Amino acid sequence: MSPVGQASGHGIEIGSVDAHRTRRTWARRQCHFLKETAYDHATQWYQTYFLEAVLRQKPLKPSKDGRHVPLQLDGPCQPLVDERRGHSYISNTIRTSRYTIYDFIPKQLIFQFTRLSNAYFLAIGIPQTIPGLSTTGNYTTIVPLFFFVALTILKEGYDDYKRHRLDKLENANVTTVLRSAASDMVVSTTKWPWFRDKSKVIAYEGAGPGGDDKDGDYSWAQVEWKDVRVGDIVRLRRDEAVPADIVLLHATGENGIAYIDTMDLDGETNLKSRESLRDFKECDTIGGLRSTVAEFVVEDPNPDLYHFDGRVAINGKTLPLTSNEVIYRGSTIRNTNCVIGIVINTGEECKIRMNANQHPDAKIPALESMANKIVLTLVFYVIVLTAGCSAGYVMWRWATERNSWYISIATVELKQIIIGYAIQYNNIVPLSLYVTLELTRIGQLLLLNGDIEMYDEVTDTPARCNTNTILENLGQVSYVFSDKTGTLTDNIMKFRKLSIAGTSWLHEMDLSEDKNTRLQNEQSAPTHTLTTRKSQDAQSAQYEDIELFSLASPNTAIFPTRRRSSQWKSTGQPNHVQPDVTTSDLLEYIRLRPASYFASRAKDYILCLALCHTCLPEIKDGHLQYQSSSPDELALVQAASELGYTVTDRSSESVTIRVSSEDGNETLETYQILDVIEFSSKRKRMSIVVRYPDGRICLICKGADSAIMPRLKLAELAKEKATEVRKSVDLEREMVRRSEQLEVRNSFGGRPSFTLRRSFAANRDSLDLSRLAKRPVLERSKSVEPSKSRSSQDKARPSLNIRTASLDVGKTLSKPSPLTPVSAAPNKFSFLEGPSILDEATVFNRCFKHLDEFATEGLRTLLVARRFITEAEYMAWKDIYHSATTSLIDRQDKIEDAGEQIEQTLDLVGATAIEDKLQAGVPETIDKLRRANIKIWMLTGDKRETAINIAHSARICRPGSDIFIFDSSKGDLEGQIRDATEDLRSGTVHSVVVIDGQTLASVERSPVLTDLFYTLIPTVDSVICCRASPAQKSTIVKAIRQRLPKALTLAIGDGANDLAMISASHVGVGISGKEGLQAARVADYAIAQFRFLQRLLLVHGRWNYVRTGKFILATFWKEMFFYLPTAMYQMYNGYTGTSLYESYSLTVLNILFTSLCVLCMGIWEQDLRAETLLAVPELYVHGQRNRELNFPRFIIWMTGAVINGTLVWVLIWLGYNVFGLPRDNGLFAFGDLAFSIGILWTNWKLFIMETHYKSAIVIGAFGITVSGWFAWQAFLSGIYPLQPSPYAGRGAFVNTFGEDATWWSLLFGVLLVLIGLDITFKFVKRNLIVYGLWNWPPWGRRNADDSPENCENWDRQLWQELEQDPAIRERLRQALLDEELGRPGTVEEESETGLDRGN
Prior knowledge:
Layout: H1 10-52, E1 67-71, E2 81-82, E3 87-88, H2 104-113, H3 116-128, H4 142-171, E4 174-180, E5 203-205, E6 218-224, E7 233-237, E8 245-251, E9 257-261, H5 263-266, E10 272-275, H6 286-291, E11 294-298, E12 310-314, E13 317-321, E14 326-327, E15 332-334, E16 338-345, H7 351-354, H8 367-399, H9 414-424, H10 433-449, E17 464-465, E18 477-482, E19 489-500, E20 503-506, H11 515-524, E21 546-550, H12 583-592, H13 597-611, E22 616-620, E23 623-627, H14 631-642, E24 645-650, E25 654-660, E26 666-677, E27 685-691, E28 697-703, H15 705-708, H16 715-741, E29 754-758, H17 769-773, H18 793-796, H19 840-856, E30 860-869, H20 871-885, H21 891-902, E31 907-918, H22 922-931, E32 935-939, H23 944-953, E33 962-966, H24 973-985, E34 991-996, H25 997-1005, H26 1007-1016, E35 1022-1026, H27 1030-1043, E36 1048-1053, H28 1059-1064, E37 1067-1071, H29 1077-1082, E38 1085-1087, H30 1092-1128, H31 1143-1147, H32 1149-1153, H33 1156-1164, H34 1170-1175, H35 1181-1184, H36 1191-1218, H37 1227-1249, H38 1256-1279, H39 1292-1295, H40 1301-1330, H41 1356-1364, H42 1366-1381, ...
Parallel strand pairs: 18-32, 18-36, 32-35, 33-34, 34-35, 36-37, 37-38
Antiparallel strand pairs: 1-11, 2-3, 4-6, 4-7, 5-6, 7-16, 8-14, 8-16, 9-10, 9-15, 11-12, 12-13, 17-38, 19-20, 19-31, 21-29, 22-23, 24-25, 25-26, 26-27, 27-28, 28-30, 30-31
Helix pairs in contact: 2-4, 3-4, 8-9, 8-30, 10-30, 10-33, 13-14, 16-19, 20-21, 22-30, 24-26, 25-26, 30-33, 30-36, 30-37, 33-37, 33-38, 36-37, 36-40, 37-38, 37-40
């Protein structure tokens, strides 16, 4: 048997190939391991001997007993001392810039001269300054080198200066701090005496929170953030940002509770509550603060956001401090009028800064490593050329010089010959490469910033490039790490669907778009006008044997999909049929049949939504608004208001609801709030106990289905029906997965946008797509049973990811039943009169199916239940609950136990589905990026269920995805990872790993788990990391960079909690929308919406990568081509180093005559149209697979340069000295002929032959360069000095060789030969490509990834020709428009055009 378990024959061959790949992989890993080891040792040496020994920057030791922060206003007014440092605590200044004044120049010099070409020219330029060694001048290399390096340093300094200005703006934010008159004399906390400055007070306030808070010695003062110190007491108002980490002393909320928004800190959208200790209840005034004496002992600064250890000594007792009493910098005060706290951490020691990737190094473009290899190759070539010419001189001296009496005493030392040739040929490695490259990047930057397609009109925000040195990296990204809140979503929750008594209803009252307008827009949208696949133009006959077949994404809407009248469609599954009835119909039914059973159930449902929450109504600008700690609750309350139950007032004791009755009247109903059992991540539910106006006591509970279902009155029946639904879902999911395995796949396993059918003149049989689709069905191991992809029952429902056979109204039209509505008929509500809504088993079954459908569509689901309890039962429970809420020990656990006692035997009311609204275009963008072979990972601080729901709606999770949930709380984490690895080896269409921050921390603590996990995740398609801290986000990005050094990573986010991963990735993108200013200023690129990422990568990324690759190749090509004739000329001048070209023209060669051809290519080249790149995202793999700039391509270009240069020399030598009779046979005329051919051929090839996008700028630059060359000839003829020289230039072009027909004939004859040769090569290559015979090297072994049927493997020349056909160009444009509008073409049009849409 072969190593892969097959018999002899092909199995042996496959086994040998696998073994060869294994050996290569092992070699690469060993090489990478050695590099990492060397880097670690170098880092350790740098830390030990340089930072610690020389700069005395030793790591801080932990304090003995934590950080001591006293609260004693009447004590001595001196800055607190950090015992770890021995001086004052660091200031509250933060810095995101990369450099400071004193380290900018050293760091930049090291960075610039670690670039290989700069180091090479420095090594050449230093000996060139020695008199007598150089034949080209002493400073022609070193001076331009320093000039170019200085320009680059100045540019980098300007970029960092912009970051510094933004830091200064944040440090200058104003906050309110308690100050005394004596504090004005306290200097700032810097340890350098010459930098000390007074802490400036901007203004004093006369009153505190109560309006009459005045004190003779102390007052509230406004200071800048940078002047806040450890131990300061700060006062914050509503919606103000927290300037430093503080311990809460007082809050105006009920029971001393303050609500904070931590979205910028950890990405969570729900408001969090912080509660001050009761012993600080007097700290609401200055007098109370002065009378309070306490000492806080807190942990040393660390990046852990979720745990805090500390204590406070007050009133003779010691109380614990936890994260419940601490508010971190990066938070914002919400729903609380005033908060007072004491500062414990400042500046870079705040939690948010400890989680940031502080002062990251400058990012290096990925192409630079390839450019360095090319430079090394050319340096080797220069060495070989120098050695060859030097050896030639030795042989010439032995054969000729010693026998010629007139030069026998003019022998030159060999070392001078060697150094002279090395200096002469050093320009083969172009000196201006990096500076000219910077100029092209500036042009690319301006084009990117000016792209109107990435301009957001709503926020008036264009795309912005902050770092232009890595523009080409945008075209090589393999991994995208995205934040959720503010990046994928708008953090706007909308109530979207509900399930009542087994019936599903769509809620779309909040949608402002008029239905008629929508229908008119759909009807007026452009339609297909193509009637034939082939263009009627005769020129299209050259590619009439090519047919394109468009294969739609599984998420592309296919009409008819949902009811035509619906304005809303699911972003996760746009082809899902929506319910045929809405909540407007529900209200109509309640108005028509108010006394019916279903109407009673519906009103109870709406009432429960209006009662079970903690939202506070308030009037702003004459409008009723709600303040809520959770956007989910806000959506439910707003939905209840839209359905006629408006909360008008709420206090801790009662809630008042304005009810709209069926007759149009409104009544106010007041419900007494008896108790509220708060939501917690452990309980996964919240409950409220209210007394109805009629005196009844009701418990209303809402929460996750896993938390509500076991507490239902008919819990066993509910579990039975849930199990039945689960089996049905698992079966359908497996069928979807198997069907996807049979679909046509591209080279990287994705669904192709188009596939190819090629027919030949001799054989018109088309490729059989069904044959390509016949893939073996992947067998699953036991551990891959659908139920195994869920770690627990409470995670089961959110992880479902396929659409089940729903029994909602819209999906039962084809099967008559009591529930079947008759649209536009008087009995359209007849389905509500059937007996099924009275059957609990049927209701459970349908409700759980609805829950699964809602979750599959990416909606956030909750179950709502209630029970009426007697007065005696409530009073008995009240005693237990009161004891729990007043307990000083394990209070939270006792509250949860008390809640568990009363939350039993509940009656199911219904289910809710809330849409976490995505930003426009997010699902389509993610779908395109996936088709571009980019893996999308979501790293968020939000909870698991929310993250999975968003993953479904954003299409990170596909209908057939295998989801593997890793949860350390379930035990045997190593077994979970190994099982997932085994399942992935058995084969999967699309795999998703879900892990939370706590589990990730467990993985990082174990070397075995770390190796297993980070070996697994590069093999999966997507990863969802929830409850992740900013530091953990950064760790994941760094791990991928380390494990896959060739993969380029991109991180995108909008908040301060995303800065670490943005800095750690190869490319950082900030969302500069509502919440994204922090990320936008630090990121390399800033865009207003996530949807612009597809154009940034697929269009600008591809263009910039192609431009830069072509620029580098063209630059090296022209240098090799130009200097080859002068090297061949050496054998005719005794190897004396005499140049074939005169020095003036040679000096301005790269400045005047060969600069525009590479600059225009590097700035304006567009190898394919933007519409093509967006319609066919697979073309993005061009950059991922390094097809534009790689070593074989470099060798091809250099071979072409050698052939061209040799051909030019041979032809002009034969024509000028063998067969021709020139009027001027001097060196100047001969060299000028070679130089002119070089100028004209270089510009013709780069402008005309190699530049695809020939805009007016390109043609104009070509004309300017060519005419400028002949103008230079005339100028040089007039000003060339009259002196003894081999170059007789004065009047030569005008009077001698300029009038010679031989000279001009050779000029144009050689150009025609070069042009004809290049055209012939392209013609042969083109025909071989069309017939699928272009394989390079031809003897190379092909694999499945190189299949010509995959559109990403089609040669660029083929796509360029296809774009010229108006029919195909229009079809590509229409396909792009269809995707944007979610509307495919009709079947008739597809069959005629040959661009078929699949399912």
